[in-house]
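Final report, closing paragraph on structural work. Over the funding period we assembled a curated collection of sequence-structure pairs, and we close with a single example.
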Amino acid sequence: MNDVPEIGGSCDTRFDAVRAAFEENFRELGEVGAAVAVTIDGRPVVDLWGGWADLARTRPWRRDTIVDVFSAGKGMATLALLLLVDSGVVDLDAPVARYWPEFAAEGKGGVTVRMVLAHRAGLPAIHRELPPLAMYDWSLMTSALAEDTPWWEPGSRHGYHVNTFGFLVGEIVRRASGETFGAFFRRHVAESLGADFHFGVGPEHDERIADHLLPDDDRGLADFLVAADPPEAGADPRRRVLLERVYVNPSGISGFGTVNTRAWRAAEMPSTNGHGNARAVARIYAPLACGGVTDGVRVLAPATIDEAIAEASVGVDVVVGRPSRFGLGFQLTQTSRPFGTNPRSFGHFGTGGSLGFADPDARLAFGYTMNLPGPRWKNPRTEALVDAVYASL
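Its predicted structure, as stored:
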């Protein structure tokens, strides 16, 4: 049993179970530093933080602490592209090559924006071996994707585009808007909503960024992932090649040994290096839970949200080797990994358990950020918090 650190923030009495679960995560489940936030009808009802921003426990986790949320940032990247869809600048059913002509190479001329968002583009990894840390070179990464051959016939199946999703979506945003992805997101999402969430973080923020306690390097990661495959993945020797390219090409792309460096924080990698806190994550999902508007700020039309959360991919995922379920960019709730109890909930998990989601039925938005990863598929700390939220409704 561990000591519970001082918990900061506020929590409506109706949601005392969430505070209790948050404290229990420190007491019994090894939480180091974390924050959790919930809004109902756009109004904050939970905003808690506590613990430590470093393994040595010398830096307290404060109200303004931010941390890398890894793939929870894919929901934010999705929202940025959907803003361009909503305004008519980007057509979901247009070929990606309409906005990014070089992308048509190697038979990809028919790949649509919709396929990219639904993880059906067949580009979960880059075939050719890239130099270490190449992910910091946006032009190199996007050029390599444009030149590459799909791993499967686009549209024929789905597979989680773990690290490439952000470069694909981000380059469409860049080509269609004329701004870098980070600049577009900052202007149209973060500043519009007053959310402390960033892609590309300057050194002036380093003192308030929590260290993410991932292992130091990615050696053996592909072997581990194959060994951990569920039965649904089957015994296919090609999976090791695929997973090696997905997770460690280039070396460092998954954050192992790189996540706490200045270069990682400064880069714009929408799949993996969004930095924020739970309050910001819930703030960004709040309008999506409320028909597209909160506090007078319109984000998306209801019809755009409805299209984005309609099931676009379902079944055994070619990459993760187990069932997954996607709308357009957003993960959809599923029995094995639910976003609460309501069927229309959508959002995105991040490595080790970070999470942001919207529940339109409850008009609820949720954010959880932390620095100690839990198990690969399900973090019991995340589950305890979500369960406590729904027990409080």
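The longest strand covers residues 43-51. DSSP finds twelve helices and 14 strands in the chain. We thank the funder for supporting this effort.
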